[in-house]
Design brief:
single chain; mainly alpha; Arc Repressor Mutant, subunit A; 2 domains; three-stranded antiparallel sheet; elongated
């Protein structure tokens, strides 16, 4: 098993909240379970550290990253700043990009929520923010957004909004409408308002999967 595959396996378990923030990632156990050398495991974990999913502690090893509330605030501010830059680029474009993909994601999210598929709705909400920045066609902004959204998923395993999830749907529809009307100032404000709404959080009751093999779904 190569480091990329190992990294994807661990990342999926983290992002699906089967490995919760603060969980120790024992290299020997991972090596035994995955049939890979410790050097391969370490290489994969370092890659996940670069994405903000894993943290190393001196003389203790690797752990699933556990952001503080202050970290979460900085993260949401960074997401808002990245998206403000993105909408400026999109609205300044001589030829407006197609919004079909963004509309499609929003429609699927609304359908998932109506059917009570909360986890699916959460993933589509993340996809919406990825597609929003992808409209720029700027690979640096898109990569920054990808990394920020990975960290967002870890943060939401620690902190969850105290709001009814339905309160977070309308801003996506409004963002779409403002993109269509090309209202730059209103759109920037709406992006900021959306992330200020999301940042209202409380401690989450995330449940760890004790058995590592089960958490990795081996």
């Amino acid at each position: 098993m190569q480091p990329e595959e190992i990294g994807r396996l661990i990342a999926t378990a983290i992002l699906d909240r089967r490995l919760v923030p603060g969980r120790r990632l024992n290299e020997l156990e991972l090596s035994r379970l995955l049939g890979a050398s410790r050097s391969m495991i370490r290489f994969a974990l370092v890659g996940l550290q670069h994405d903000g999913l894993v943290a190393f502690e001196a003389n203790r090893g690797a752990f699933v990253a556990k952001p503080t509330l202050a970290d979460a605030h900085f993260l949401f501010e960074a997401l808002a700043a990245n998206e403000r830059a993105a909408v400026d680029i999109v609205l300044a474009a001589a030829t407006p990009p197609s919004l079909e993909r963004l509309r499609g994601v929003h429609a699927r999210q609304a359908k998932a929520r109506a059917r009570g598929r909360t986890r699916r709705s959460e993933q589509l909400a993340i996809d919406f923010h990825h597609e929003l920045v992808a409209l720029t066609g700027d690979p640096l902004l898109v990569d920054a957004q990808r990394k920020l959204l990975l960290r967002y998923r870890v943060a939401t395993a620690v902190f969850k909004t105290g709001l009814d999830d339905r309160e977070l749907e309308d801003p996506h529809g409004e963002i779409l409408a403002l993109l269509e009307s090309r209202s730059a100032a209103k759109l920037r404000r709406r992006v900021d308002q959306h992330w200020r709404l999301v940042i209202r959080g409380q401690a989450s009751a995330a449940h760890d999967v004790a058995d590592l093999a089960e958490a990795l779904r081996l």
